[in-house]
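Reading is simple: each integer encodes one residue's backbone shape. The lines below illustrate:
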Amino acid sequence: MIIPTDLNAISLERNETMTKRAHAEPLLLENFDLLDVEAGALTKGCALLIEEGRIRSVAKGSIAGGTGKARRLDLKDRVLMPGLIDCHVHILQSIFPESADFLPSFLTAAAVARLGEMLDRGFTTVRDAGGADAGHRQAVERGIVRGPRLFVAGRALSQTGGHGDARSSADLLEPCGCSALLKGGIGRIVNGVPEVLHAARDEIRLGADQIKIMAGGGVGSPHGFLEYDQFTNEEIAAIVDEARRARKYVMAHVYSAEGTKRLVRLGVRTIEHGNLVDDEAVRMMKESGAYLVANLIVYEVIAKFGREHGFPEAGLARLQTILDAGTRSIELADHYGVKIGYGSDLVKAPEYQSDEFLVRGRVQKPIDVIRSATLVGADIVGRAGQLGVLKEGAVADLLALDGNPLEDLSLLTGQGAHMALIVKDGRIEKWTGAG
């Protein structure tokens, strides 16, 4: 099955006219080096005008006329680049054992702090991969909560005994119905075509931007194994068709090569993790237009801190398989031309979110890692040409760095320490310069 890659063509882009915030004051940014992520090059001595949350003009040198009311910021030869996009986050602390003791109100309060921290790291857009719902998204859009633009999956769909089933192997209680909340509220257990259709339709009704399915075993599963293909072909095909007809798409948790091939054949659009893919799986992804959303930093963090954070012992035993695979999936995807999205997947220790740049940088050129977190991310969320670029008409999400990230990816780490300016939707979220 060929997966549609131009989501704007199928009207996936969310209508954001519901946002109630007034536009920020016009901004005129001057005296900076522009990072063109498409060309992979810097242009020195540029200026950029922002009006009503959009980039109105970009020029080498200065911008003349129509800038009298704009606030002027001298960036002093810093590098200006698009805001970052993380396509696999979990803003709710929801899949570790102690989360079962937290009410949704507590988890949401914790998520508010997490969202602000993500924005301070330069992430102006994130895609939640299970747990966050339309209410979280709306709170950010309306300015109630400070954070990145959110694309949400609602509750992930899992089969009984699947990666999203948080019950232990000794738990005899049966969830009541397909809408049963799992521990921490990250997912729902569904079985059979009627139930998966009901669940997909319900998540769409509740405002999900995409549907998340747990289609294979996981490192964090309390039971099962990585190569366990979950859901039947008929169940997955039904979910994909429902999402397609609603002008949405399916993202799928999977590790194995065979599981990836099956999902791609059935029309799944983004492969989450995919650490154990092989040449055939990656070739099929390229042919179908599927994306790989890799997340490697999470495994290094789990290896270092997992036991003290209560990570399941069975999961720690499976972890070595993923660590042994290392960056192989990234190398294969690059070789065959599959688009790779940036993902961190850090439920615990979210402060390591930006270190994914350093892990990717072991095998990719800096510009390719940056494109993963800008251009490719914008493609994935259906906002190509609007996010992830600095050009006329694009949304004014941007960062000014104290150095050149094409030479040093660590400038994108350090909790935003190297970011003098962060702008989202034309609003200054951080400015450490004068003026």
